[in-house]
Amino acid sequence: MLKILLERAKQRHRTVAYPAIEPTLPRHFRGAPELDPARCEAGCSDCERACPTGAIALEDGRVRLDTGRCLFCVECTAACPKGAIELGSDYRLAARRREDLIVEGAFEQKRVELDGRLRKLFGRSLKLRQVSAGGCNGCELDLNVLGTIVFDLGRFGIQFVASPRHADGLLITGPVTRNMELALKKTYDATPDPRIVIAVGACAISGGIYASHPETRGGASSVVPVDLFIPGCPPHPYTILDGLLGMLGRLEGREPKTRASAAQGAPAATGH
């Protein structure tokens, strides 16, 4: 017991301070894409050809990037000879509407709040049934991370439940394979009204790398209505958490501090 207490004191407090303090992301983090059409060469389509999911389209000299299809694989940035496409560091990628995932220039964060009635119902307590509809387990693993001591999803009143009959909504991962289509429909029907649906990851949004496969349905929207889209392959836990809290209106009026500003004037560490 003494060794456990000493180790606990050594590790101190492990839960992140987000959203009060901006997260520290790894140097190689791949976030929101930034497009600079002015750098594009006329007739060049290297980025479009390089994209494995068709997320990039060239129309009338404009570059359009669909973050709902994007794998954040940097094939396009490597292929572009002029650096017209870059992946930035913004982790706030969620959107309420599918069309809001299209980027044509500088990335703009979208408002994702539910309407007043649903926010009043779910703002303080949200129970979700997670459905893995043929996913590769990448998105599922990052959802599991949210339940660890680092993120502690439960402190926000958000929990995953075992039965759709106990849920306020569904959180779907995977491209929705043919074998999972009926299961997803039944799970949706078993969830009591009013209910919300969240699509997490490129596969759940658009089918991702499996979009053209005959055994998939090309994402959750083809089977059930979706209220929130969280892009990524897989999305970073901060991206998922930001989308969930934004949807519930838990980020309104917040101006997150940086770690440096939070440290100024902060009380001395207590060992917790």
Short account of what is shown:
The protein has 272 residues and is an alpha/beta fold. The chain has helices at 2-11, 46-50, 75-79, 116-122, 138-145, 178-190, 202-206, 237-247, 259-263, and strands at residues 33-35, 56-59, 62-66, 85-87, 102-103, 126-132, 158-160, 169-173, 196-200, 228-230.
Would you mind describing this structure in some detail?
Strands 7-6-8-9-10 form a 5-stranded parallel sheet, sandwiched between helices. The protein has a 3-stranded antiparallel sheet with strand order 2-3-5, with no helix packed on it. Helices cover about 25% and strands about 15% of the residues. It has a domain of about 130 residues: Rossmann fold, CATH 3.40.50. The chain is an alpha/beta fold. The longest helix is centred in the C-terminal third of the chain and has 13 residues. It is globular.
Topology diagram in text:
Blueprint: H1 2-11, E1 33-35, H2 46-50, E2 56-59, E3 62-66, H3 75-79, E4 85-87, E5 102-103, H4 116-122, E6 126-132, H5 138-145, E7 158-160, E8 169-173, H6 178-190, E9 196-200, H7 202-206, E10 228-230, H8 237-247, H9 259-263
Parallel strand pairs: 6-7, 6-8, 8-9, 9-10
Antiparallel strand pairs: 1-4, 2-3, 3-5
